[in-house]
Amino acid sequence: MATSDLRDWIALLEREGELVRVGAEVDPHLEVTEIVTRTIRSDGPALLFEHPKGSSHALLVNQFGTERRMCLALGVERLDDAATKLAEVLEMQPPQGLGEKLRGLRQLKSIADSPPRTVRKGACQEIVLQGDDVDLGQLPVQTCWPGDAGPFITLPAVITRDPRDGRRNVGMYRMQVLGPRATAMHWQLHKDGRADYRATDGRMEVAVALGLDPVTAYAASAPLPKHIDELMFAGLLRGEPIDVVKGVTIDLEVPAAAEIVLEGYVNQDELVDEGPFGDHTGFYTPAEPFPVFHVTAMTMRHEAIYPSIVVGKPPQEDAWLGKATERIFLPAVRATVPEIVDYDLPVAGAFHNCCIVSIRKAYPGHAHKVMHAIWGLGMLSLTKTVVVVDAHVDVHDYAQVAFYVGANVDPARDVVLTEGPADHLDHATTRQFVSGKLGIDATAKGPAEGTRAWPPEIEMTDDVRALVDRRWNEYRIPAASPARDGAIRHSSSGLLRR
């Protein structure tokens, strides 16, 4: 069963031994970042700082910092299991028999129960501050890195409405605190919040929800198509709808169980220099003009808990948000490019610098077709490097992938160089927003692709493998039972192992 709110989630983490309460006073200015970074590098627990310096609100960090906690957040045993519901929806076909009809009805009911449910009252409005009573300085907002321009809100669910069709968007965009009632709003070029802003004539209302149940917080970070409501997606993953309540000063609905809600507006063409900020790329993004968010109300629960996340050189806590997205959206990627078996977005590549794809290769040039498909697929279009391997290769085993890149690639034949859109945060591009693209075809080749006779791979026979399995204990070799699949094993293999 899904956790109902952030407090329910914290209680679950405590029961599972996955959270530590820190009673000592700690400073949100840099000190918390160093504590959290060391904790993450040792696969440590979520941290609830009960006495952050300068604030009466507890500070929660590293709630998503391990695979186990990410699975707990989504209510699954494995991250791949979280993709099941999405796969069932995408693969729905006209039912052929009674069993399929009943299964289809359950799937349709799950979809029907997913949209958010409007309620009259919400815990998020137990305390209402408006006008001069609003002071963002009450919150323990982190200044994460020495070169940051100031404190940044880093785990918000920013809610806007498309002025053209009224559709809701919920996104996760960093917010630099400019004063007691204003922040910058980091709407990057390729983000849906930016599209809503650009389509607005004059003033646009905005709500920011802080401190959500973990599924809704994750959904705000998910790269959904613009026509899909993130709160509905959260309801689908949770198996029950998200309760929302109308804002106090704006005509937007906000998650009723949020710890803190900021209500306000942005004005078209009112910009401020935002940044620098130490980002998930591992580098500081420079100052750049972004919209100003004016806060008209701050509502909250009694003894509200403020959530934050530290980003920087990987791995950081956001690694597992990214890995969850990788796994959950595999069915959607396969629905568009069905020959794809699996894919991996390496954490060290900040999720948009590299994509490793395995395919069921069927014809000459097939790998090139898949490269270009990836470069035309939603936010994957920002990927700089695509490596394509055959279906039997484990894309999460980076040593195995490197073996096939070394073994199967003739750089004169198998490397593709092209150009396309680049991530807003990519500092390496010559022109902002546009970069070169590198494709590497590491699949086995046939004569139609201009190769000589392709040699067979070395494999032991099944009968000899079975013989050694039976006799392994006789050999008295002090080692664990070895891998039987012939795969290369290396300590630098991917975060996810199959």
Walk me through this protein's architecture.
The chain has 498 residues and is an alpha+beta fold. Helices cover 26% and strands 23% of the residues. The protein contains 14 helices and 23 strands. Strands 5, 6, 7, 8, 9, 10, 11, 14 and 17 form a nine-stranded antiparallel β-sheet that branches. The protein has a five-stranded mixed β-sheet with strand order 19-20-21-23-22, with helices on both faces. Strands 1-2-3-18 form a four-stranded mixed β-sheet. Residues 92-96, 100-105 and 486-494 have low confidence and may be disordered.
The major β-sheet equals: 9 strands, antiparallel
**Unreliable segments of 5+ consecutive residues:** 92-96, 100-105, 486-494
Number of helices, counting only DSSP H or I runs of 4 residues or more = 14
> Strand percentage, roughly?
15-25%
What structural class do you assign from the helix and strand content? alpha+beta
Shape, per Cα inertia axes: globular
Average pLDDT taken over every residue: 89
Q: What's the Cα radius of gyration? A: 24 Å
Number of strands: 23
**Helical fraction:** 25-40%
Separation of termini? Answer: 26 Å
